[in-house]
Amino acid sequence: MSTALTAAERLELPHLMCAAADAGRAEDFGAWFADDATYTFGNSPTIVGREAVVAATAGAVGSLPWLEHVVEEVTDAGDRLFCRYTIKSGSRTGEALALPCMTVITLGDEGKIVDYRVFMDLSPALP
Length: 127
Description:
Layout: H1 7-22, H2 26-30, E1 33-41, E2 47-48, H3 50-62, E3 67-76, E4 80-90, E5 96-107, E6 113-119
Parallel strand pairs: 1-6
Antiparallel strand pairs: 1-2, 3-4, 4-5, 5-6
């Protein structure tokens, strides 16, 4: 179990990460990850390392017309957070989208993310 973050800090973590992504601050989003963290988005290949997470986040956010995460639930299971969101963005045709998303975040002993898994279909928002 991660002891570097308090229970309140663990519950706040997804909110802070989402705020960084929504503002296009990929470096701030990536700061929560361990140097050798793994990140898997849907069926895409797993990427490894903080710098790869930052690059992937910047690319994903940059490909969307706008982005807003609505955090609906965070369940703290000690070293693992289960998060349910609605991801709001625009479609290729300019329509507003609200896409369901689940994320499983695994924290290491230092309170950094060591594994991050996103379960959603982002294709309606992509060009």
